[in-house]
Amino acid sequence: MKKIVSFRRMADGTREDYLLLDRSERDFAAGLPDRVLGALRKLDSTLEGYPVSRLEHSLQVATRAEAAGADEELVLGALIHDIGDELSPYNHAEVAAGILRPYVRPEVTWIVEQHGLFQTYYYVHHLGGDRFARERLKGHPWYDACVAFCEWDQASFDPDFATRPLAHFEPLLRRVLSREAHDPRYVGETA
């Protein structure tokens, strides 16, 4: 029989209730890599109009990051940078950054969180917008790194690109997303 807490209001919870929930949450968190892989696979059949699927695009960005010598945290950021597209199309970057934040250094989280704004440089002027909107962040210590990330991102819609498969990135994804959340060895101060 599944154990459940004794309360109907959190204020009425006991120590035993919260120990039970803590164990349950830890067990659930251990399944994060599988849920992220499932969400990535769903990107194979969303958002039409591009010459490659959102999954293929994400794999291309990760492949480019890896080929450029990016470390595993940034490669993971490249892999899941658009994972929020399905449920949050207008702030997908923040969703991806939220998934990464407990497991990677702040620089990677910031790059992924800002990539949506930085990407507008390539297209928004065609729609009447300001392609230089990202300039308001000029001077930020990770500005240039985000510009470089977006070069990989904007170039990754090529059906002829030699893209590594998801299985190639799975061990890296499992390794990073299985870390202890908020471990100071990986997650430090923000800029």
Pick out its properties.
191 residues, Hypothetical protein af1432, 50% helix, mainly alpha
Can you describe what's shown?
Helix content is 50%, strand content 0%. It contains eight helices and no strands. It is globular, with a radius of gyration of 19 Å. The model has no long low-confidence stretch (mean pLDDT 95).
Topology:
Elements: H1 15-29, H2 32-42, H3 54-67, H4 72-80, H5 92-100, H6 106-119, H7 143-154, H8 166-177
Strands, count? 0
Kindly state the mean pLDDT as a whole number? Answer: 95
Q: What is the percentage of strand-forming residues?
A: under 5%
- Give me the Rg, rounded: 19 Å
Q: What is the number of domains? A: 1
> Uncertain runs with pLDDT below 50, 5 residues or more?
none
Which second-level CATH architecture applies? Answer: Orthogonal Bundle
Give the full name of the CATH homologous superfamily: Hypothetical protein af1432
Number of helices: 8
Under the CATH scheme, which class? Answer: Mainly Alpha
Termini distance?
A: 48 Å
Brief rundown of the structure:
The protein has 191 residues and is mainly alpha-helical.
